[in-house]
UniProtKB/TrEMBL annotation:
<protein>
    <submittedName>
        <fullName>Peptidase S41</fullName>
    </submittedName>
</protein>
<dbReference type="InterPro" id="IPR005151">
    <property type="entry name" value="Tail-specific_protease"/>
</dbReference>
<dbReference type="GO" id="GO:0008236">
    <property type="term" value="F:serine-type peptidase activity"/>
</dbReference>
<feature type="domain" description="Tail specific protease">
    <location>
        <begin position="132"/>
        <end position="325"/>
    </location>
</feature>
<dbReference type="GO" id="GO:0030288">
    <property type="term" value="C:outer membrane-bounded periplasmic space"/>
</dbReference>
<dbReference type="GO" id="GO:0007165">
    <property type="term" value="P:signal transduction"/>
</dbReference>
<dbReference type="Pfam" id="PF03572">
    <property type="entry name" value="Peptidase_S41"/>
</dbReference>
<dbReference type="GO" id="GO:0004175">
    <property type="term" value="F:endopeptidase activity"/>
</dbReference>
<feature type="signal peptide">
    <location>
        <begin position="1"/>
        <end position="22"/>
    </location>
</feature>
<dbReference type="InterPro" id="IPR029045">
    <property type="entry name" value="ClpP/crotonase-like_dom_sf"/>
</dbReference>
<dbReference type="GO" id="GO:0006508">
    <property type="term" value="P:proteolysis"/>
</dbReference>
<keyword id="KW-0732">Signal</keyword>
Length: 358
């Protein structure tokens, strides 16, 4: 999940700009009609307006119908808290499987690990059978560079270590990379992604919004940056960087039904590389960028507002199919969980073995 924090001020401006017509249609009714206080109605209008304006699939959604149904869920609403259920309903009706609403108490819990300074390394790495470098990615989320940069640097050092061990290929296991932020992972794995950028083509992937606006994520000498129009901003920079020989090795990526959101965004920049092959199952299917808005009482709307495209321009907004789908084995019957793990691991190693002899 690519997290972009949007201020309440900008959200209110957005709501005012586009909710005027909506208000005339849906909110013209008097607040007393369902015994809804002006405070509660105003809070809901701003949240609804933001969603209606920014949702990626907004052009395909009947917001008038959803708005009327949401208002029916606000009978006797007097405070902002009384509208939470209606806002959550609107987000659920987007049916993008990615957007959600979080009350103030839960947002504080989400930020608590970062406030307290707790830190864990969200990946494991090892050399298996003295031939394959294995990296297992786990979900991780933090908006702070002070926390993401050590992860990226550690991943980079892992790739250096693999080179010292003369491995013949790399396996990246993303089966349980369920989301969060892609930044430290793409940053640390950048040497595997930017080794063929001699043409000056520095884009790894990008986002396309419902209004057609595009934003690119690129890399240059250990830096990951975002670029939209004339604006460019650095997301992360490796402490030390130089091209690594392991970038030219075969790279097998294992993904599955729990690979989601940020996990899918980490996967996408690898897909068009000639030395990469993917194994496993189709991903969960939410490779959508998100924008987070904190409302006046610190409740949060996390909204899917863009789809992801690869460096060739192909847009992804659903499950990503692997090159080798393990569900097609065993005479067409889906294998059980343990067999799936064995199949994916074995097929990845076999492909690396074959590539290393070519």
């Amino acid at each position: 999940m690519f997290l972009k924090i949007v201020s309440i001020v900008s959200a209110i401006v957005l709501a005012i700009c586009f909710s005027c017509q909506t208000s005339q249609k849906l909110f013209k009714r008097k607040p007393t009609e369902n015994n809804v206080s002006p405070q509660a109605l105003d809070y809901f209008e701003k949240a609804f307006g933001y969603i209606r304006s920014e949702a990626y699939h907004r052009k395909e959604i009947d917001f008038d119908k959803i708005g009327v149904a949401a208002l029916e869920k606000m009978v006797n609403a007097q405070t902002s808290a009384d509208t939470y259920g209606a806002i959550a309903y609107v987000l659920a009706e987007l049916k993008d499987r990615h957007s959600f609403f979080t009350p103030p108490s839960n947002t504080r819990e989400m930020l608590a690990p970062h406030v307290s300074g707790e830190r864990t390394m969200p990946f494991e790495a090892s050399v298996i059978d003295r031939e394959y470098g294995l990296i297992v990615l786990n979900s991780y989320n933090s908006p702070y560079k002070s926390e993401t940069k050590p992860i990226a640097d550690s991943l980079y050092r892992t790739l250096q270590y693999f080179g010292e061990k003369n491995i013949k290929g790399i396996i990246i296991d993303m089966r349980f990379m369920e989301g969060g932020t892609y930044v430290p992972f793409v940053g640390g794995l950048a040497p595997l992604l930017d080794h063929d950028l001699s043409t000056g083509h520095d884009m790894l992937f990008g986002y396309v919004y419902s209004n057609g606006r595009k934003e690119q994520i690129g890399t240059y000498k250990g830096s990951i940056f975002t670029k939209g129009g004339r604006k460019q901003a650095q997301l992360i920079q490796l402490s030390n960087w130089k091209p690594l020989p392991v970038a030219n090795l075969p790279i097998a990526i294992i993904a599955g039904k729990y690979t989601a959101s940020a996990g899918e965004m980490i996967l996408i920049p690898f897909l068009s590389l000639p030395n990469v092959r993917t194994f496993g199952e189709p991903t969960y299917g939410v490779p959508t960028g998100k924008s987070n808005i904190f409302l006046a009482d610190s409740a949060m709307i996390s909204l899917a507002n863009s789809a992801t495209f690869d460096r060739n321009g192909k847009v992804y907004d659903g499950p990503i199919e692997p090159d080798v789908n393990i569900n097609t084995f065993k005479n067409g019957s889906p294998p059980d969980s343990l067999v799936k793990v064995y199949l994916a691991d074995s097929l990845a190693k076999a492909w690396i073995d074959k590539k290393s002899f070519q």
